[in-house]
Design goal:
alpha/beta, 5-stranded mixed sheet
Protein backbone atom coordinates (compact mmCIF):
# COMPACT_ATOMS: atom_id res chain seq x y z
CA UNK A 1 0.00 0.00 0.00
CA UNK A 2 1.02 3.57 -0.51
CA UNK A 3 2.16 5.54 2.47
CA UNK A 4 -0.33 7.53 4.46
CA UNK A 5 -0.53 11.24 3.95
CA UNK A 6 2.16 12.77 6.07
CA UNK A 7 4.06 9.48 6.51
CA UNK A 8 6.51 9.77 3.62
CA UNK A 9 10.26 9.78 4.25
CA UNK A 10 11.42 13.03 5.75
CA UNK A 11 12.67 15.26 2.93
CA UNK A 12 15.75 17.45 3.20
CA UNK A 13 15.05 21.11 3.73
CA UNK A 14 15.24 23.39 0.75
CA UNK A 15 18.89 24.50 0.48
CA UNK A 16 19.85 28.08 1.17
CA UNK A 17 21.96 29.16 -1.81
CA UNK A 18 24.39 31.18 0.29
CA UNK A 19 25.13 28.36 2.72
CA UNK A 20 25.33 25.82 -0.11
CA UNK A 21 27.65 27.78 -2.40
CA UNK A 22 28.83 30.94 -0.62
CA UNK A 23 30.17 29.70 2.71
CA UNK A 24 33.18 27.83 1.29
CA UNK A 25 34.62 30.79 -0.75
CA UNK A 26 34.01 33.19 2.14
CA UNK A 27 35.63 30.73 4.56
CA UNK A 28 38.62 30.46 2.24
CA UNK A 29 39.01 34.25 2.17
CA UNK A 30 38.71 34.47 5.97
CA UNK A 31 41.25 31.68 6.53
CA UNK A 32 43.72 33.33 4.12
CA UNK A 33 43.26 36.64 5.97
CA UNK A 34 43.88 34.84 9.28
CA UNK A 35 46.97 33.22 7.73
CA UNK A 36 48.31 36.64 6.75
CA UNK A 37 48.12 37.80 10.38
CA UNK A 38 49.43 34.50 11.77
CA UNK A 39 46.21 33.49 13.46
CA UNK A 40 46.08 30.13 11.63
CA UNK A 41 48.79 27.73 10.69
CA UNK A 42 51.05 28.92 7.83
CA UNK A 43 50.39 25.95 5.54
CA UNK A 44 50.39 26.43 1.74
CA UNK A 45 47.46 28.35 0.27
CA UNK A 46 46.66 25.50 -2.13
CA UNK A 47 46.09 23.21 0.88
CA UNK A 48 43.41 25.50 2.25
CA UNK A 49 41.81 25.82 -1.18
CA UNK A 50 41.77 22.05 -1.71
CA UNK A 51 40.34 21.41 1.78
CA UNK A 52 37.60 24.02 1.69
CA UNK A 53 36.58 23.95 -1.97
CA UNK A 54 37.08 20.18 -2.17
CA UNK A 55 34.71 19.74 0.77
CA UNK A 56 32.14 21.83 -1.08
CA UNK A 57 32.43 19.71 -4.22
CA UNK A 58 32.20 16.42 -2.33
CA UNK A 59 29.24 17.71 -0.33
CA UNK A 60 27.37 18.52 -3.53
CA UNK A 61 28.13 15.05 -4.88
CA UNK A 62 26.56 13.33 -1.85
CA UNK A 63 23.72 15.89 -1.48
CA UNK A 64 21.20 13.63 -3.35
CA UNK A 65 21.74 11.05 -0.60
CA UNK A 66 20.15 13.30 2.03
CA UNK A 67 16.99 11.16 2.10
CA UNK A 68 18.93 7.89 2.49
CA UNK A 69 17.46 5.87 5.34
CA UNK A 70 19.23 5.35 8.69
CA UNK A 71 21.90 2.67 8.58
CA UNK A 72 22.31 2.70 4.80
CA UNK A 73 25.70 2.92 3.10
CA UNK A 74 24.72 6.18 1.42
CA UNK A 75 23.88 7.77 4.74
CA UNK A 76 27.24 6.79 6.22
CA UNK A 77 29.08 7.91 3.08
CA UNK A 78 27.39 11.30 3.19
CA UNK A 79 28.22 11.87 6.86
CA UNK A 80 31.79 10.61 6.36
CA UNK A 81 32.34 13.11 3.55
CA UNK A 82 31.05 15.99 5.67
CA UNK A 83 33.16 14.95 8.66
CA UNK A 84 36.27 14.56 6.50
CA UNK A 85 35.86 18.10 5.17
CA UNK A 86 35.37 19.52 8.66
CA UNK A 87 38.38 17.57 9.96
CA UNK A 88 40.64 18.80 7.17
CA UNK A 89 39.67 22.46 7.61
CA UNK A 90 39.98 22.35 11.43
CA UNK A 91 43.40 20.75 11.54
CA UNK A 92 44.82 22.64 8.57
CA UNK A 93 44.01 25.83 10.45
CA UNK A 94 46.08 24.65 13.36
CA UNK A 95 43.25 25.13 15.86
CA UNK A 96 42.80 21.40 16.39
CA UNK A 97 40.70 20.44 19.37
CA UNK A 98 39.85 24.07 20.09
CA UNK A 99 37.40 23.93 17.20
CA UNK A 100 35.82 20.64 18.23
CA UNK A 101 32.39 22.27 18.36
CA UNK A 102 32.56 22.59 14.61
CA UNK A 103 31.77 18.87 14.53
CA UNK A 104 28.69 19.48 16.63
CA UNK A 105 27.44 22.22 14.31
CA UNK A 106 28.04 20.04 11.25
CA UNK A 107 26.28 17.12 12.91
CA UNK A 108 23.35 19.26 14.06
CA UNK A 109 22.86 20.53 10.52
CA UNK A 110 22.79 16.94 9.29
CA UNK A 111 20.30 15.91 11.96
CA UNK A 112 18.03 18.79 11.04
CA UNK A 113 18.01 17.81 7.40
CA UNK A 114 18.13 14.03 7.56
CA UNK A 115 16.22 13.11 10.72
CA UNK A 116 17.03 12.35 14.32
CA UNK A 117 17.73 8.69 13.57
CA UNK A 118 21.14 9.69 12.08
CA UNK A 119 22.54 11.00 15.38
CA UNK A 120 24.51 7.84 16.17
CA UNK A 121 26.20 7.84 12.78
CA UNK A 122 26.93 11.58 13.06
CA UNK A 123 28.43 11.14 16.52
CA UNK A 124 30.50 8.13 15.51
CA UNK A 125 32.01 9.71 12.41
CA UNK A 126 32.62 12.99 14.26
CA UNK A 127 34.50 11.22 17.06
CA UNK A 128 36.48 9.30 14.48
CA UNK A 129 37.38 12.54 12.68
CA UNK A 130 38.37 14.17 15.97
CA UNK A 131 40.46 11.18 16.91
CA UNK A 132 42.28 11.14 13.59
CA UNK A 133 42.94 14.88 13.82
CA UNK A 134 44.23 14.70 17.37
CA UNK A 135 46.47 11.78 16.40
CA UNK A 136 47.96 13.82 13.57
CA UNK A 137 48.61 16.66 16.02
CA UNK A 138 50.16 14.22 18.49
CA UNK A 139 52.64 12.79 15.96
CA UNK A 140 53.40 16.23 14.59
CA UNK A 141 51.88 15.73 11.13
CA UNK A 142 49.22 18.42 11.64
CA UNK A 143 49.93 21.96 12.79
CA UNK A 144 48.70 23.22 16.15
CA UNK A 145 48.73 26.64 17.80
CA UNK A 146 48.76 25.00 21.22
CA UNK A 147 51.21 22.90 23.08
CA UNK A 148 50.71 19.17 22.78
CA UNK A 149 49.28 18.86 26.29
CA UNK A 150 46.88 21.76 25.75
CA UNK A 151 45.78 20.36 22.38
CA UNK A 152 45.09 16.97 23.93
CA UNK A 153 43.10 18.42 26.81
CA UNK A 154 41.10 20.69 24.54
CA UNK A 155 40.48 17.81 22.14
CA UNK A 156 39.15 15.55 24.90
CA UNK A 157 36.97 18.32 26.30
CA UNK A 158 35.69 19.22 22.85
CA UNK A 159 34.83 15.60 22.06
CA UNK A 160 32.93 15.32 25.33
CA UNK A 161 31.01 18.56 24.77
CA UNK A 162 29.99 17.96 21.18
CA UNK A 163 29.17 14.32 22.02
CA UNK A 164 26.67 15.56 24.59
CA UNK A 165 25.36 18.19 22.16
CA UNK A 166 24.81 15.64 19.41
CA UNK A 167 23.14 13.15 21.78
CA UNK A 168 20.82 15.82 23.15
CA UNK A 169 19.95 16.96 19.64
CA UNK A 170 19.29 13.36 18.63
CA UNK A 171 17.09 12.69 21.66
CA UNK A 172 15.13 15.90 21.11
CA UNK A 173 14.72 15.11 17.44
CA UNK A 174 13.60 11.55 18.13
CA UNK A 175 11.05 12.78 20.66
CA UNK A 176 9.76 15.30 18.16
CA UNK A 177 9.54 12.71 15.39
CA UNK A 178 7.74 10.26 17.69
CA UNK A 179 5.29 13.00 18.59
CA UNK A 180 4.76 13.75 14.91
CA UNK A 181 4.20 10.06 14.17
CA UNK A 182 1.74 9.83 17.08
CA UNK A 183 -0.16 12.89 15.88
CA UNK A 184 -0.26 11.47 12.37
CA UNK A 185 -1.53 8.17 13.78
CA UNK A 186 -4.27 9.95 15.69
CA UNK A 187 -5.21 12.09 12.71
CA UNK A 188 -5.45 9.23 10.24
CA UNK A 189 -6.39 6.22 12.39
CA UNK A 190 -9.22 5.16 14.66
CA UNK A 191 -8.20 5.35 18.31
CA UNK A 192 -10.08 2.19 19.35
CA UNK A 193 -9.22 -0.30 16.59
CA UNK A 194 -6.07 1.26 15.14
CA UNK A 195 -7.61 0.99 11.67
CA UNK A 196 -7.50 3.79 9.12
CA UNK A 197 -10.29 6.25 9.80
CA UNK A 198 -12.77 7.87 7.44
CA UNK A 199 -10.32 10.62 6.46
CA UNK A 200 -7.56 8.21 5.46
CA UNK A 201 -10.01 5.93 3.65
CA UNK A 202 -11.34 8.83 1.57
CA UNK A 203 -7.78 9.88 0.74
CA UNK A 204 -6.83 6.38 -0.44
CA UNK A 205 -10.04 5.94 -2.38
CA UNK A 206 -9.56 9.30 -4.09
CA UNK A 207 -6.06 8.29 -5.15
CA UNK A 208 -7.29 4.89 -6.34
CA UNK A 209 -9.90 6.54 -8.56
CA UNK A 210 -7.30 9.01 -9.88
CA UNK A 211 -5.00 6.12 -10.86
CA UNK A 212 -7.73 4.17 -12.63
CA UNK A 213 -6.29 4.84 -16.10
CA UNK A 214 -3.01 3.13 -15.14
CA UNK A 215 -4.65 -0.15 -14.15
CA UNK A 216 -5.62 -2.36 -17.01
CA UNK A 217 -8.78 -4.33 -16.29
CA UNK A 218 -8.86 -3.42 -12.61
CA UNK A 219 -11.04 -0.92 -10.80
CA UNK A 220 -11.52 -0.13 -7.12
CA UNK A 221 -14.59 -1.33 -5.26
CA UNK A 222 -15.99 -0.53 -1.84
CA UNK A 223 -17.69 -2.75 0.72
CA UNK A 224 -19.76 -1.09 3.44
CA UNK A 225 -20.11 -3.26 6.57
CA UNK A 226 -22.68 -2.75 9.32
CA UNK A 227 -22.87 -5.06 12.33
CA UNK A 228 -26.24 -6.65 13.03
CA UNK A 229 -27.41 -6.53 16.67
CA UNK A 230 -24.56 -4.24 17.72
CA UNK A 231 -26.90 -1.96 19.64
CA UNK A 232 -28.22 -4.97 21.48
CA UNK A 233 -24.68 -5.75 22.67
CA UNK A 234 -24.26 -2.20 23.95
CA UNK A 235 -27.66 -2.20 25.60
CA UNK A 236 -27.26 -5.60 27.25
CA UNK A 237 -23.56 -5.82 28.13
CA UNK A 238 -22.55 -2.17 28.14
CA UNK A 239 -20.36 0.02 25.96
CA UNK A 240 -17.14 -1.68 27.04
CA UNK A 241 -18.38 -4.95 25.55
CA UNK A 242 -19.31 -3.06 22.40
CA UNK A 243 -15.76 -1.73 22.17
CA UNK A 244 -14.36 -5.24 22.67
CA UNK A 245 -16.59 -6.46 19.85
CA UNK A 246 -15.41 -3.71 17.50
CA UNK A 247 -11.76 -4.57 18.16
CA UNK A 248 -12.40 -8.27 17.53
CA UNK A 249 -14.29 -7.48 14.33
CA UNK A 250 -11.36 -5.36 13.12
CA UNK A 251 -8.95 -8.23 13.78
CA UNK A 252 -11.10 -10.89 12.11
CA UNK A 253 -11.88 -8.90 9.00
CA UNK A 254 -8.27 -7.75 8.61
CA UNK A 255 -7.16 -11.38 8.75
CA UNK A 256 -9.25 -12.42 5.72
CA UNK A 257 -8.48 -9.44 3.47
CA UNK A 258 -5.76 -9.25 0.85
CA UNK A 259 -2.62 -7.18 1.36
CA UNK A 260 -3.85 -4.67 -1.20
CA UNK A 261 -7.17 -4.12 0.59
CA UNK A 262 -7.79 -1.38 3.16
CA UNK A 263 -10.12 -1.88 6.12
CA UNK A 264 -11.26 1.36 7.77
CA UNK A 265 -13.60 2.13 10.61
CA UNK A 266 -16.11 4.56 9.17
CA UNK A 267 -17.87 5.37 12.43
CA UNK A 268 -19.89 3.61 15.12
CA UNK A 269 -20.31 -0.02 14.10
CA UNK A 270 -19.71 0.71 10.41
CA UNK A 271 -16.58 -0.45 8.59
CA UNK A 272 -15.53 0.07 4.98
CA UNK A 273 -13.26 -2.15 2.89
CA UNK A 274 -11.51 -0.56 -0.08
CA UNK A 275 -10.49 -3.18 -2.65
CA UNK A 276 -8.18 -1.41 -5.07
CA UNK A 277 -7.56 -4.46 -7.25
CA UNK A 278 -10.76 -6.06 -8.53
CA UNK A 279 -11.48 -7.49 -11.94
CA UNK A 280 -15.24 -7.41 -11.56
CA UNK A 281 -18.16 -8.45 -9.41
CA UNK A 282 -16.87 -12.01 -8.93
CA UNK A 283 -13.68 -10.82 -7.26
CA UNK A 284 -15.38 -8.49 -4.80
CA UNK A 285 -18.11 -11.04 -4.04
CA UNK A 286 -15.41 -13.60 -3.20
CA UNK A 287 -13.81 -11.13 -0.78
CA UNK A 288 -17.22 -10.28 0.68
CA UNK A 289 -17.95 -13.94 1.29
CA UNK A 290 -14.70 -14.33 3.22
CA UNK A 291 -15.63 -11.29 5.30
CA UNK A 292 -19.11 -12.67 5.97
CA UNK A 293 -17.68 -16.05 6.94
CA UNK A 294 -15.37 -14.35 9.45
CA UNK A 295 -18.47 -13.76 11.59
CA UNK A 296 -19.51 -17.43 11.72
CA UNK A 297 -17.76 -18.13 15.01
CA UNK A 298 -19.18 -16.50 18.15
CA UNK A 299 -17.41 -13.52 19.70
CA UNK A 300 -16.17 -13.76 23.29
CA UNK A 301 -17.43 -10.64 25.07
CA UNK A 302 -16.25 -10.77 28.64
CA UNK A 303 -16.97 -14.46 29.09
CA UNK A 304 -20.24 -14.41 27.12
CA UNK A 305 -20.37 -15.79 23.59
CA UNK A 306 -22.38 -13.75 21.12
CA UNK A 307 -23.12 -14.58 17.51
CA UNK A 308 -22.98 -11.40 15.45
CA UNK A 309 -23.64 -11.17 11.73
CA UNK A 310 -22.79 -8.40 9.29
CA UNK A 311 -24.74 -6.74 6.48
CA UNK A 312 -22.55 -5.89 3.49
CA UNK A 313 -23.19 -3.42 0.69
CA UNK A 314 -20.93 -3.40 -2.37
CA UNK A 315 -20.37 -0.67 -4.94
CA UNK A 316 -18.21 -1.14 -8.04
CA UNK A 317 -16.52 1.70 -9.88
CA UNK A 318 -17.97 2.09 -13.37
CA UNK A 319 -17.96 4.69 -16.08
CA UNK A 320 -20.70 6.72 -14.41
CA UNK A 321 -18.84 7.20 -11.11
CA UNK A 322 -16.16 9.85 -11.05
CA UNK A 323 -15.86 10.74 -7.38
CA UNK A 324 -15.33 9.22 -3.96
CA UNK A 325 -18.58 10.44 -2.43
CA UNK A 326 -20.71 8.69 -5.04
CA UNK A 327 -18.97 5.34 -4.63
CA UNK A 328 -19.27 5.45 -0.84
CA UNK A 329 -22.88 6.58 -1.06
CA UNK A 330 -23.77 3.69 -3.35
CA UNK A 331 -22.05 1.17 -1.07
CA UNK A 332 -23.95 2.64 1.87
CA UNK A 333 -27.22 2.42 -0.03
CA UNK A 334 -26.53 -1.22 -0.91
CA UNK A 335 -25.78 -1.98 2.74
CA UNK A 336 -28.99 -0.28 3.84
CA UNK A 337 -30.93 -2.30 1.25
CA UNK A 338 -29.28 -5.53 2.51
CA UNK A 339 -30.18 -4.68 6.10
CA UNK A 340 -33.77 -3.88 5.13
CA UNK A 341 -34.23 -7.45 3.85
CA UNK A 342 -34.34 -8.66 7.44
CA UNK A 343 -31.91 -11.50 6.68
CA UNK A 344 -28.78 -11.74 8.83
CA UNK A 345 -25.48 -11.67 6.97
CA UNK A 346 -26.94 -10.36 3.71
CA UNK A 347 -24.58 -9.24 0.91
CA UNK A 348 -25.97 -6.79 -1.64
CA UNK A 349 -24.30 -5.31 -4.72
CA UNK A 350 -25.49 -1.88 -5.75
CA UNK A 351 -27.62 -2.41 -8.86
CA UNK A 352 -30.58 -0.80 -10.54
CA UNK A 353 -33.22 -1.95 -7.99
CA UNK A 354 -30.92 -0.75 -5.20
CA UNK A 355 -30.47 2.56 -7.03
CA UNK A 356 -34.23 2.99 -7.21
CA UNK A 357 -34.62 2.13 -3.53
CA UNK A 358 -31.83 4.59 -2.66
CA UNK A 359 -33.47 7.34 -4.67
CA UNK A 360 -36.79 6.61 -3.02
CA UNK A 361 -35.08 6.80 0.35
CA UNK A 362 -33.47 10.15 -0.50
CA UNK A 363 -36.77 11.52 -1.81
CA UNK A 364 -38.51 10.35 1.37
CA UNK A 365 -35.97 12.16 3.53
CA UNK A 366 -36.19 15.31 1.39
CA UNK A 367 -39.99 15.37 1.37
CA UNK A 368 -40.16 14.54 5.08
CA UNK A 369 -38.07 17.60 5.89
CA UNK A 370 -40.93 19.76 4.54
CA UNK A 371 -43.89 17.60 5.54
CA UNK A 372 -44.43 19.27 8.89
CA UNK A 373 -44.32 22.79 7.49
CA UNK A 374 -46.68 21.81 4.66
CA UNK A 375 -49.13 20.29 7.18
CA UNK A 376 -48.97 16.88 5.49
CA UNK A 377 -48.66 14.99 8.78
CA UNK A 378 -51.77 13.87 10.62
CA UNK A 379 -52.78 11.68 13.53
CA UNK A 380 -55.01 8.67 13.71
CA UNK A 381 -56.20 7.36 17.05
CA UNK A 382 -56.70 3.70 17.98
CA UNK A 383 -59.01 3.00 20.92
CA UNK A 384 -57.89 1.23 24.07
CA UNK A 385 -60.78 -0.50 25.83
CA UNK A 386 -61.40 -1.72 29.35
CA UNK A 387 -61.50 -5.51 29.02
CA UNK A 388 -64.14 -5.95 31.72
CA UNK A 389 -66.62 -3.37 30.35
CA UNK A 390 -65.45 -3.13 26.71
CA UNK A 391 -65.72 0.64 27.01
CA UNK A 392 -63.19 2.94 25.37
CA UNK A 393 -60.99 4.36 28.13
CA UNK A 394 -58.06 5.70 26.13
CA UNK A 395 -56.47 6.18 22.74
CA UNK A 396 -53.04 5.74 21.23
CA UNK A 397 -51.96 8.52 18.87
CA UNK A 398 -50.49 7.06 15.67
CA UNK A 399 -48.66 9.18 13.10
CA UNK A 400 -49.56 9.18 9.41
CA UNK A 401 -48.18 11.09 6.43
CA UNK A 402 -50.49 12.25 3.67
CA UNK A 403 -47.86 12.34 0.93
CA UNK A 404 -48.92 14.51 -2.03
CA UNK A 405 -47.83 11.85 -4.56
CA UNK A 406 -47.67 8.52 -2.72
CA UNK A 407 -50.86 8.86 -0.72
CA UNK A 408 -51.34 7.96 2.95
CA UNK A 409 -48.11 6.49 4.36
CA UNK A 410 -47.83 4.41 7.52
CA UNK A 411 -44.99 5.00 10.01
CA UNK A 412 -43.03 2.00 8.73
CA UNK A 413 -42.36 3.94 5.52
CA UNK A 414 -40.84 7.05 7.08
CA UNK A 415 -40.06 6.64 10.79
CA UNK A 416 -36.59 5.18 10.19
CA UNK A 417 -35.36 8.15 8.11
CA UNK A 418 -37.06 10.50 10.57
CA UNK A 419 -35.18 8.87 13.44
CA UNK A 420 -31.86 8.80 11.59
CA UNK A 421 -31.99 12.42 10.42
CA UNK A 422 -33.26 13.78 13.72
CA UNK A 423 -36.52 15.01 12.19
CA UNK A 424 -38.35 12.81 14.68
CA UNK A 425 -37.62 15.39 17.40
CA UNK A 426 -39.72 18.26 15.97
CA UNK A 427 -42.23 15.76 14.60
CA UNK A 428 -42.53 14.17 18.04
CA UNK A 429 -43.21 17.55 19.62
CA UNK A 430 -45.92 18.20 17.04
CA UNK A 431 -47.48 14.77 17.73
CA UNK A 432 -47.51 15.43 21.48
CA UNK A 433 -48.97 18.92 21.16
CA UNK A 434 -51.63 17.90 18.62
CA UNK A 435 -52.70 14.74 20.45
CA UNK A 436 -52.86 16.44 23.87
CA UNK A 437 -54.89 19.33 22.50
CA UNK A 438 -57.29 17.05 20.62
CA UNK A 439 -57.93 14.61 23.48
CA UNK A 440 -58.20 17.38 26.08
CA UNK A 441 -60.79 19.20 23.94
CA UNK A 442 -62.82 15.99 23.81
CA UNK A 443 -62.48 15.35 27.56
CA UNK A 444 -63.78 18.82 28.43
CA UNK A 445 -67.08 17.93 26.81
CA UNK A 446 -67.49 14.68 28.73
CA UNK A 447 -68.04 13.72 32.38
CA UNK A 448 -64.91 13.10 34.41
CA UNK A 449 -65.44 9.33 34.53
CA UNK A 450 -65.55 9.24 30.69
CA UNK A 451 -62.29 11.10 30.10
CA UNK A 452 -59.94 9.30 27.71
CA UNK A 453 -56.34 8.54 28.53
CA UNK A 454 -53.65 9.30 25.92
CA UNK A 455 -50.67 7.21 24.84
CA UNK A 456 -47.93 8.74 22.65
CA UNK A 457 -44.89 6.93 21.30
CA UNK A 458 -41.46 8.15 22.41
CA UNK A 459 -38.57 7.36 20.07
CA UNK A 460 -34.97 6.61 21.12
CA UNK A 461 -33.81 9.80 19.42
CA UNK A 462 -36.27 11.88 21.45
CA UNK A 463 -35.21 10.14 24.64
CA UNK A 464 -31.58 11.00 23.87
CA UNK A 465 -32.35 14.73 23.70
CA UNK A 466 -30.90 16.45 26.81
CA UNK A 467 -33.86 18.85 27.04
CA UNK A 468 -36.59 16.24 26.59
CA UNK A 469 -38.24 17.09 29.92
CA UNK A 470 -38.16 20.84 29.24
CA UNK A 471 -39.54 20.35 25.72
CA UNK A 472 -42.34 18.12 26.99
CA UNK A 473 -43.39 20.49 29.76
CA UNK A 474 -43.23 23.47 27.38
CA UNK A 475 -45.65 21.71 25.00
CA UNK A 476 -48.03 20.79 27.81
CA UNK A 477 -47.83 24.25 29.36
CA UNK A 478 -48.55 25.98 26.06
CA UNK A 479 -51.67 23.81 25.67
CA UNK A 480 -52.69 24.37 29.29
CA UNK A 481 -52.64 20.64 30.02
CA UNK A 482 -51.88 18.83 33.28
CA UNK A 483 -50.37 15.41 32.42
CA UNK A 484 -51.89 13.92 35.58
CA UNK A 485 -55.38 15.01 34.56
CA UNK A 486 -54.88 13.61 31.06
CA UNK A 487 -53.08 10.51 32.34
CA UNK A 488 -50.56 10.89 29.56
CA UNK A 489 -48.35 7.89 28.82
CA UNK A 490 -45.14 7.78 26.82
CA UNK A 491 -44.70 4.43 25.11
CA UNK A 492 -41.10 3.31 24.80
CA UNK A 493 -40.87 0.64 22.12
CA UNK A 494 -38.57 -2.05 23.42
CA UNK A 495 -37.57 -3.34 20.00
CA UNK A 496 -36.01 0.02 19.18
CA UNK A 497 -33.40 -0.29 21.93
CA UNK A 498 -32.83 -0.31 25.64
CA UNK A 499 -32.47 2.59 28.03
CA UNK A 500 -28.89 2.06 29.15
CA UNK A 501 -27.63 5.53 29.98
CA UNK A 502 -28.05 6.97 33.46
CA UNK A 503 -29.03 10.34 32.01
CA UNK A 504 -31.82 8.71 29.98
CA UNK A 505 -33.18 6.95 33.04
CA UNK A 506 -33.02 10.25 34.93
CA UNK A 507 -35.12 11.95 32.25
CA UNK A 508 -37.80 9.28 32.53
CA UNK A 509 -37.72 9.52 36.32
CA UNK A 510 -38.19 13.29 36.11
CA UNK A 511 -41.10 12.91 33.68
CA UNK A 512 -42.69 10.42 36.06
CA UNK A 513 -42.35 12.92 38.91
CA UNK A 514 -44.17 15.47 36.76
CA UNK A 515 -47.08 13.06 36.22
CA UNK A 516 -46.21 11.42 32.87
CA UNK A 517 -46.64 7.64 32.85
CA UNK A 518 -44.28 5.23 31.09
CA UNK A 519 -45.55 2.26 29.08
CA UNK A 520 -43.34 -0.49 27.66
CA UNK A 521 -44.54 -1.41 24.18
CA UNK A 522 -43.99 -4.85 22.57
CA UNK A 523 -43.32 -6.28 26.03
CA UNK A 524 -41.58 -9.66 25.96
CA UNK A 525 -40.11 -9.48 22.45
CA UNK A 526 -36.79 -7.86 23.36
CA UNK A 527 -33.99 -8.54 25.79
CA UNK A 528 -34.57 -5.80 28.34
CA UNK A 529 -38.20 -6.21 29.40
CA UNK A 530 -37.60 -7.14 33.01
CA UNK A 531 -34.73 -4.66 33.24
CA UNK A 532 -37.13 -1.91 32.19
CA UNK A 533 -39.67 -2.91 34.80
CA UNK A 534 -36.98 -3.12 37.47
CA UNK A 535 -35.09 0.12 36.77
CA UNK A 536 -37.67 2.51 35.26
CA UNK A 537 -40.86 4.14 36.57
CA UNK A 538 -43.06 1.87 34.45
CA UNK A 539 -46.84 2.09 34.88
CA UNK A 540 -48.05 0.03 31.92
CA UNK A 541 -46.80 -3.02 30.01
CA UNK A 542 -48.23 -3.80 26.58
CA UNK A 543 -48.17 -7.48 25.64
CA UNK A 544 -46.92 -7.86 22.07
CA UNK A 545 -49.37 -9.06 19.43
CA UNK A 546 -47.23 -12.13 18.65
CA UNK A 547 -48.26 -13.64 22.00
CA UNK A 548 -51.89 -12.51 21.78
CA UNK A 549 -52.17 -14.03 18.30
CA UNK A 550 -51.52 -17.54 19.64
CA UNK A 551 -53.31 -17.22 22.96
CA UNK A 552 -56.05 -19.64 21.88
CA UNK A 553 -54.05 -22.14 19.82
CA UNK A 554 -50.64 -22.28 21.51
CA UNK A 555 -50.50 -23.18 25.21
CA UNK A 556 -47.07 -21.58 25.56
CA UNK A 557 -48.33 -18.25 24.30
CA UNK A 558 -51.27 -18.43 26.70
CA UNK A 559 -48.89 -19.27 29.56
CA UNK A 560 -46.66 -16.32 28.67
CA UNK A 561 -49.62 -13.93 28.60
CA UNK A 562 -50.84 -15.27 31.94
CA UNK A 563 -47.36 -14.90 33.42
CA UNK A 564 -47.00 -11.31 32.22
CA UNK A 565 -50.41 -10.36 33.64
CA UNK A 566 -49.70 -11.96 37.00
CA UNK A 567 -46.23 -10.41 37.18
CA UNK A 568 -47.54 -6.96 36.28
CA UNK A 569 -50.39 -7.10 38.76
CA UNK A 570 -48.06 -8.25 41.54
CA UNK A 571 -46.06 -5.02 41.19
CA UNK A 572 -49.09 -2.76 40.57
CA UNK A 573 -48.75 -2.32 36.80
CA UNK A 574 -51.57 -2.11 34.27
CA UNK A 575 -51.54 -4.52 31.32
CA UNK A 576 -52.64 -3.75 27.76
CA UNK A 577 -52.93 -6.57 25.24
CA UNK A 578 -52.12 -5.51 21.67
CA UNK A 579 -53.34 -6.97 18.39
CA UNK A 580 -56.68 -8.35 19.54
CA UNK A 581 -58.47 -9.41 16.36
CA UNK A 582 -60.95 -12.16 17.34
CA UNK A 583 -63.66 -12.65 19.91
CA UNK A 584 -61.91 -15.80 21.09
CA UNK A 585 -58.75 -13.83 21.89
CA UNK A 586 -60.81 -11.23 23.70
CA UNK A 587 -62.59 -13.87 25.75
CA UNK A 588 -59.25 -15.44 26.71
CA UNK A 589 -57.98 -12.05 27.92
CA UNK A 590 -61.12 -11.59 30.01
CA UNK A 591 -60.54 -14.99 31.57
CA UNK A 592 -56.89 -14.17 32.32
CA UNK A 593 -57.81 -10.87 34.01
CA UNK A 594 -56.11 -8.52 31.53
CA UNK A 595 -56.84 -4.83 32.21
CA UNK A 596 -57.02 -3.26 28.75
CA UNK A 597 -56.88 -4.28 25.12
CA UNK A 598 -56.54 -2.76 21.66
CA UNK A 599 -56.68 -4.22 18.18
CA UNK A 600 -58.71 -4.33 15.00
CA UNK A 601 -61.54 -6.18 16.78
CA UNK A 602 -61.98 -3.16 19.03
CA UNK A 603 -61.29 -0.41 16.54
CA UNK A 604 -58.98 0.57 13.69
CA UNK A 605 -56.80 3.67 13.87
CA UNK A 606 -58.93 6.53 12.52
CA UNK A 607 -59.22 10.33 12.59
CA UNK A 608 -60.25 11.87 15.91
CA UNK A 609 -63.68 13.09 14.76
CA UNK A 610 -64.76 9.62 13.65
CA UNK A 611 -63.42 7.91 16.77
CA UNK A 612 -64.93 10.41 19.19
CA UNK A 613 -68.27 10.19 17.46
CA UNK A 614 -68.21 6.42 17.87
CA UNK A 615 -67.09 6.71 21.51
CA UNK A 616 -69.96 9.08 22.25
CA UNK A 617 -72.53 6.77 20.69
Amino acid sequence: MDQEPGSASKPGKAPDLFFEYGVAPVALVVVLAFRHFGVVAPVPVWAYAVAILGSLVLSQIVEPWTDAGPGTCRMHARIAVHVTGVTAVIYLSGWGGALGMAYAFAALADLERSGAATWRAALGWSLLGCGVGQTLVFVGWAPSLFTRSHAEAIGILGAFVFGIAIRMAGATGEYKERAEVMLAQQAWHDALTGLPNRQLLVDRLTRAIAMLDRREGEAPAVMFLDLDRFKLVNDTLGHHAGDVLLVQVAERVSAVLRKTDTLARFGGDEFVVLCEETSGADTIEHVAERVRAAFDDPFDLGGECWTISVSIGIALLDGEITNTETLLSEADAAMYFAKAQGVAGKVQIFDEPTRRAARRRVHTETDLAHALAREELLLHYQPIVDVASRQIVGVEALLRWQHPERGLLSPSEFLEPAERTGLIVPIGEWVLATACTTVTRWNRTRPLDEHLHLAVNLSPRQLAEPDLVQRTMAVLSAAGIDPRELRLSFELTENFGAVHETRERDRLMELSTLGVHLAIDDFGTGYSSLGYVKDLPVSVVKIDRTFVDGICERPRDRAIVRGVIELAHSIDLWVVAEGVETEAQYAALVALGCDYAQGFLLGYPEPAERLFARAAA
